[in-house]
């Protein structure tokens, strides 16, 4: 794998699967995270992780304050810059957004595109973080920074299961007790910078608890909805369960997505690009007309 900076590695994780042409809460969180990562690169450029805690705390707070005053234009410039850099490196492209397969968008002609990271590069970054966080031993600086950035932008739910997140929380409590710099960082947050006060986040939590498909989400870490359920009209599909699944797979492949059927116990999930979905037959009423189809529901494992 090529050597990527902290902010580039984080962008490969954070922007993957995010709608690219329009603004969204999830994308705003990632872009702000890229700004934070750039600041962390400067802070640790010539200083090891055992730097003076008070100095680090002051530098981090000053960085956060600068980012807090960024405008929408600053975010747009950063987004274009990081995509141009990663695109030139061959590790990020734009593809049709999965949401564009939803009947509401597919039949309206609305163009939706999403960022897609190179699968191998993405997995190498994820694997490095997982090795540090889920295995015995010390935690080095870069994986720690990437984990924190992913936590604050909601990406952590796509990288670790609920049980793994519990393990990480326990490990970070232990690691933070031994390293004041890690403790300061782990207790800091930036997701509140892109929330409209605390109310929106609390309302999002309330809505989350009402959604039965997200019961597996671990609320010890911030949750930001990065994926949505997709409804696909079943007119072109077969009648059997397997036939419908095969037709969905073929439909998504034709739309430019990587699709793989993955056994998970007694059920079969669809891995679409880098993310997992359950498939359910369902009916949606549109202008009083029932339309049969399938729902693709994001899986948080």
Please explain how this structure is put together:
The chain is α+β, with helices and mostly antiparallel strands and 301 residues long. The protein has two domains: 194 residues, no CATH class; 69 residues, no CATH class. It contains twelve helices and seven strands. The strands form two sheets. The protein has a five-stranded antiparallel β-sheet with strand order 3-7-6-5-4, with helices on one face. A two-stranded antiparallel ribbon has the order 1-2. Helix 1 packs antiparallel against helix 2, helix 1 packs parallel to helix 7 and helix 6 packs across helix 7. The two termini are 27 Å apart.
Keywords:
globular; alpha+beta; five-stranded antiparallel sheet; 12 helices; 2 domains; two-stranded antiparallel ribbon; about 300 residues
